[in-house]
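Obj.: predict assembly geometry.
Materials: sequence records (below).
Method: joint structure prediction, all chains together.
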Amino acid sequence: MIEVDGLTVRYGGVTSLDAMSLTFEQGTCGLIGPNGAGKTTFFNVLSGFVRPAAGTVRAFGADLLSMAHYRRARWGVRRTFQTEQAIEELSVFDNVAMVHEHSRLGGASRRGDVLDAITFTGLDVAPEAPVRTLGAGQRRLVEVARAVVGRPRLVLLDEPAAGLPDEETSHLAEVIRRIPEHTGALAILVDHDMSLVSACCATTAVLDFGKLIASGPTAAVLRDDAVIRAYLGVA
Amino acid sequence: MSGTVRATLERASPARIARRPTRPQLIKAAVTAALLLFAFFALPELLSLYYVDTMTQVAVYSMVTVALGLLVGRVGLFSLGQAAVLAIGAWAAARLLFATTQPYPLVLLEAGLITMLAGLLIGLPALRLRGLYLALITLMLAGGITVVLATVNFPNGGHGFLGYNGSLLHIPPIRRPSIAASDPAYFRYSMVVAILMFALVLAHIKTRPGRAWAAIRQSEPAALAAGINIWFYKLWAFALASFITGVAGGVLAGAIHYLYSINFPTQDSITLLAVTLMGGVFSLWGAVIAGFLSQFLPALLNNWGVSADWLIILFGLGVLQVLTTAPAGLADQVPKDLARLGRFLGRRLRRRPGGDAE
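Observations (raw structure tokens):
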């Protein structure tokens, strides 16, 4: 369970997150909102790239914000990026092994764990294939494999389906939906593709201009008037 | 979906990824071994002493450029101070060789470690900077070290901490290992040291630090998200490069017997970066090519009576060519061009009328 309380982030005069208070219970939770709503900023706070002006985040009883950013991965924070960041120079195996060797797990189970994670994503290439030879969808799956390896507690997925064709998106949705049961982690999905969010997330929260405007069961949230106004700009 | 998973499972069985070397890898290993054996056994017999000494310098500077290539190519750190780091290694080794009777390998190890400490002292503050600023700060430090060395001088058998005595009439040469007193033997000795240093680099690239460096070079956010302590791994790379360059300095001390600060001008650091880029920073062969460019070419020109200063212009053009057309350097470009030439010649031969190829 992640409890966010009064989280505020300011860049100069711009308030990217405005006293956000929200609890993510379990499973895969959606986080949506128009461009600039503060979704990626929220992920950047959780990853430690951005220091908030105020607020706390308690994750499974731990004070997440007091941890050094590189220690958060060891604790169990994983993330994928809006622009995919699979390391081109390394093989698929090494991309995933890189995360495992900085996790809480020892080296003895590394090979098996890494192969498990690759298999879990359904990535249909040899583990020793260099990432630079892969297509966009496959690279996304490499990122997901990195996110599920080494006993994660919190998996942050930042627009994982951006730019993917429908067929690959539906495969990705299937993989994302199974992350909580496979890893025991809480997953938070940010995406503009409402069909992906509906397919993966039981609950969804909506941000607009840094403020939380709705949260609850996904279907109800997507019918909410305030949410429709925020997305369509209706007065 | 489940079919894909099963297919992947079968494909990913441990036997499949038990890194069996592929055919090109085997060919590459065989060619490397043949070249090394040739250089070790035949080369000193075939070359004049002038060129044997030159080859020793090539071995020394290959170590320097492999370390610099590691920084530039693997981690993305541009250092313009490697000539000064080499000078520190040479100074430390010379001091130890005059002061003690320790075996040579031990002195090389200690010189490497001392240089590593010096590198860490430089790296701790400097690694907070990156790109152009890191290059600038390392260049300034190199200039500073050159000035200090010109003042304190290299050890020449004198007493005291600095080991320099300006009024000595007979300056003893820096000693060599007893098994490698002659020039050909010392070339072989430095080649073995260089191979060990290359192996050290390879062992790093293929394992945990290599993966971390690759991540840092492509994307620091991705590296951080993977739990990589960027500052620590950068410092590790800096320490490793300093260690290797320090060992190279130790080998250099025995190679030339007498050290002077004019052997390590600050601008050498710039030339070193240029030849490292020309050789290619993504391959260990690139470092060997860079060693040849920086030491063999000048020796060749000197022997022909041409001023080696022309090389500065050549290296300038070379870097321009590499940066615009072949970012992976000669080590990557030459094999590709040779293969292309081979295919071209093959086609020409087959097409020639009366040729019995078809």
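Conclusions so far: Residues 179 and 185 of chain B are 7 Å apart (CA to CA).
To do: check interface contacts against the pulldown list.
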